[in-house]
Write a structure and sequence with these properties.
This protein has 193 residues and is mainly alpha-helical. The protein contains 7 helices and 4 strands. It has a single domain, classed as Transferase(Phosphotransferase), domain 1. It has a two-stranded antiparallel sheet. Strand 2 and strand 3 form a beta hairpin. Helix 3 runs antiparallel to helix 5. It is globular and about 40 Å long.
Length: 193
């Protein structure tokens, strides 16, 4: 996994965020947000794909109590929020929308660092993945203080304190990138995510 070029990660991340906001405002939680599910069209626009695990909810941005889940089905484990593991092991329901925000934060970490926030293989047991997840150290990412602040807001382990997705585009690190478009020659393909 390579880092996204420094000049492009904000622009691409903004488009990823806008795609997820579109889903959430239309009452859809994606439940598998990861770089592999972000496609770039011929106009260098990011499109969210693979809605195989998506759920339709009764209202946008937050699940009703009856919509909350305890299942670990659908999520790609390295991008799964901590509350999913607790739901799986302790049967505590979680909000799909808020878990999508964590996954978006893992995408940002991956773009900035060129690696996942913790190392685990496909055969790593879910219990071990949960323990690794709870010890994520974003300080190891070489980026600006603004980007690091956004990263910490998205990778907040307490879902009740995690950043509201609707506030992400106005974060100073992304707000400066409003209206910018990536230069495909200078930036290279998004497949580097």
């Amino acid at each position: 996994m390579e880092k996204c070029p420094r000049s492009g990660h904000g622009v691409f991340f903004r488009m990823m965020t806008e795609a997820l906001i579109f889903c959430h405002q239309n009452c859809v939680s994606h439940r598998d947000v990861k770089p592999e599910n972000m496609l770039v069209n011929d106009r260098d626009e990011v499109k969210l794909s693979d809605f195989g695990f998506a759920r339709i909810h009764t209202k946008p941005y937050r699940c009703d109590a009856k919509d909350m889940s305890c299942e670990l089905v659908g999520w790609t484990l390295p991008f799964a929020a901590p509350e999913l593991f607790f739901a799986h092991f302790d049967r505590k329901p979680y909000d799909d929308f808020i878990a999508d925000v964590w996954s978006l934060g893992v995408c940002l970490y991956t773009m900035l660092a060129g690696a996942l926030p913790y190392s685990s293989g496909p055969d790593t047991p879910a219990e071990t993945q949960r323990d690794l997840l709870l010890n994520t150290d974003a300080d190891k990412v070489d980026c600006s203080q603004e980007a690091l602040a956004l990263l910490y807001s998205l990778l907040e382990k307490d879902p009740a304190r995690r950043m509201d997705l609707r506030k992400v585009p106005s974060h100073p690190w992304l707000a400066r990138r409003q209206g910018q478009v990536p230069d495909p020659v200078a930036e290279g393909p998004i497949s580097r995510l």
